[in-house]
Design brief:
The complex is a heterodimer of chains A (about 350) and B (about 55). By secondary structure, chain A is mostly helical. Chain A has one domain. In chain A, about 75% of the residues lie in helices and about 5% in strands. Chain A is built from twelve helices and four strands. In chain A, the strands form two sheets. Chain A has a two-stranded antiparallel ribbon with strand order 1-2. In chain A, helix 1 (about 10-30) packs across helix 12, helix 2 runs antiparallel to helix 3 and helix 4 (about 75-105) packs across helix 9. The model of chain A is unreliable at about 135-145 (pLDDT under 50). Chain B has one helix at about 5-50. The chains are: A mainly alpha (about 350), B mainly alpha (about 55). At the A-B interface, helix 3, helix 9, helix 10 and helix 12 of A face helix 1 of B.
Chain lengths: ~350, ~55
Amino acid sequence: MEILGLSLAMVVLFVGFGLLVGVLFGFFGMGGSFLVTPALLVMGYPTRVAVGSGLAFVFGTSVIATLKHRDMGQVDYKLGVLMIAGTTAGIEAGKEIVLHLEALGLAGSIISVTYVVLLGGIGAFVTYEALRGGDGGDGIDHDAAEDDVDADDIPEIAKKIQSYRIPPMISLRGGVSVSLWMILGVAFATGLLSGFLGVGGGFIRMPALFYLIGVPVPIAVGTDLFEIVFSGGLGSFLYALDGGVDLAIVLPLLAGSAFGARVGSAATSIVDEDDIKVYFGLMLLGGALAVAVREIGNVYGIGALNTVSLVLILGSALLVSGAVVYSSITALREESQSSSPV
Amino acid sequence: MVDLAAFASMGAGSIDAAMLIGAVLLEAAILYVGYGAVEEVFGQRVVERLRGE
């Protein structure tokens, strides 16, 4: 039996994989192209189709996850539009740097090393912060989006950035007030890295919104997703022009991820972020290790390392999405026990 | 001289690409509404089961 030209087993595989990615995407606002594109490449799809279909899938999932976060009041549209403006300029600048490095014949190695260092660095930082209690060590409630953020919950770097009162000042959700120029600066820097590394940038932007601008985690996730709708939509359109989007891949993936994104988004209002932050950091570390292994495989021509890389990425994604679901169920049970009469 | 054939084929490509992305957007909207309805009907029951009630 075939659906969209794929065997039933492949359709089930794509739906299941989409479910896994959707949970991560809904919860963290990242993880789409980071997971899907390498998986499609290892499955033997051409690079153009793997990247284009990955982007189209990210676009569809971000639409669903953004709508869900909007329902919970976790999208700051003003911040989102400013971030899009700054990021777009940054991506252009990043692309120019890549073209310059390509002319020098250094692009491949420098980009790979930067990717591993950045992914590993953010992963190590988030894991360290989570293990030691972090800035705002008591954690920020995921359901605190409607309330003004507690000063103790704002990371030190964000407090420093917020202290530069260069007009015009922009009021953001959560009672945060930041200079327009600081927002554009952070957006430009994240866009620069995104354009330089050729990635969607959720894993850079979401921590940047929290650690650098100081918006509460749920709003950082919702606003990041809102931005991905535009970047994913434009990116997939450009790839679709060259026939790089395969609906037979995108449609079943999206069917699974739409459900997973609902689960992940709903979990943000149940699970304490600190419970899960350590897994998020470990997933980034796993991703950095996977990219390093793949690069070593490419340099030395060891094909098996590509498979090891994929197993590392999928394993860490499975671990973290499982942790999100498990922590949600545990939190619900604890809530039920604490509210039941003794 | 303007290459009208190339221009026209680019336009057709843009329409095809836009329709492809539109199909993804349509599926996303249908899934959002569909799964939303499922959540509305079964969500509370599932949460109660998970809470052990």
